[in-house]
Amino acid sequence: MNPVNVLCIKWGTKYGSEYVNRLHSMVARHLHRPFRFVCLTDDRAGIDPAIEVHDIPQVGFKDFDERLPWSFGHGWLKLTSFKRELYDLQGTTLFIDLDVVIVDSIDCFFEQPGEFVVIKEWDKRDDTGNTSVYRFEIGAHADALEYLTANKDKALSEVRNEQEFITGFLGRQGKVSFWPDSWCRSFKRHCVRPGILCWFQPPRLPEGAKIIAFHGKPNPPDAIAGVSGKWYRKVFPTQWVADHWR
Q1: What is the pTM of this model?
Q2: Chain segment 222-233, per-residue pLDDT in tens
Q3: Cβ atoms of residues 23 and 96 within 8 Å
Q4: Whole-angstrom Cα distance, residue 212 to residue 188?
Q5: Domain boundaries defined on the chain
Q6: CA torsion, ordered 142, 143, 148, 149, to nearest 10 deg
Q7: What CATH number was assigned to the domain covering residues 4-178?
């Protein structure tokens, strides 16, 4: 069986090295085939020596290469994963955000057909994807970076964030497909009980879920501690998050 790649990226100070280390540990427990786990980062401090680490690559787009302030927000630096030649990586690659909890086997993410497979964005009715988890072939979508480089102002005027850009760009090429809905769930939308129920019942683990995404607030350690981050949303200390986020 040919090895696959699992890729993550860490920049700035929002997430510490423990997020990288725990993601690597979760992947090792839940992926039952040969793989390379690779982290792209601007700060290697504290990352487990067993993890393959590379600098966030230079991609020929000045705003990314010089780290202009806007590029740090809304996931934009994830687009560096689409560089035509990404170090010596080749082949099928699953990108996973740092702020997730893997709760079941992720073998299926390498078996699902499609050129660019991504989460269907939960909050939108169009075909926007959520790039917390996406699969692609190394080098296959370098044209997205080339387009952004040549058409920065137009591209940025049409979207709010990186995931709108990349799923719109590849969607127009007919290359986007989505994971089955049950595989990737949102902690605050699918685990935290709706409405007033969140004040009386702890978050649940949805049936069939493989990966739980912690976009916004709370993050996994907040959920473990029972800290919501929002006055209107109660989150009880959540043991199943502690059981899996390790």
Answers
A1: 0.96
A2: 999 999 988 889
A3: yes
A4: 10
A5: 4-178, 184-244
A6: 80
A7: 3.90.550.10
